[in-house]
Amino acid sequence: MAGHKIAHATLKGPSVVKELCIGMVLALAAGSLWKMHHWNEQRKVRTFYDLLDKGEISVVAQEE
Predict the structure, then answer these.
(1) pLDDT tens, 8-62?
(2) By CB neighbour count within 10 A (0-12 exposed, 13-18 middle, 19+ buried), where does 3 fall?
(3) Belongs to which family (predicted)?
(4) pTM score of the predicted model
(5) In a domain, 62, yes or no
(6) Residues 6 or more apart from 48 whose CB is under 8 A from it?
């Protein structure tokens, strides 16, 4: 019995390079989503002010 070996899974620590790569990919993905959201909001504001300048819309409520 003393000569038997049992195979155990060896636990390794986190790979620094792998963690850095995963972090950079997640950061770029989140940054891209935020930038697309920002561009969309910017487009909405620009469209609103363009329509306001043309007189097609008004921010003053009409009196009845």
Answers:
(1) 667 677 799 999 999 999 999 999 999 999 999 999 999 999 999 998 988 888 7
(2) exposed
(3) Belongs to the cytochrome c oxidase subunit 5C family.
(4) 0.61
(5) no
(6) 57
Residue 20, CB-side half-sphere exposure with 13 Å CA sphere: 3
Q: Is residue 31 part of a domain?
A: yes
- Domain total of the chain: 1
Q: What secondary structure does DSSP assign to 1-63, as a single string?
A: -TT-----PPP-PPPHHHHHHHHHHHHHHHHHHHHHHHHHHHHHHHHHHHHHHHTSS-SSPPP
Residue 22 lies in a domain: yes
Burial of 20 (0-12, 13-18, 19+ CB in 10 A): exposed
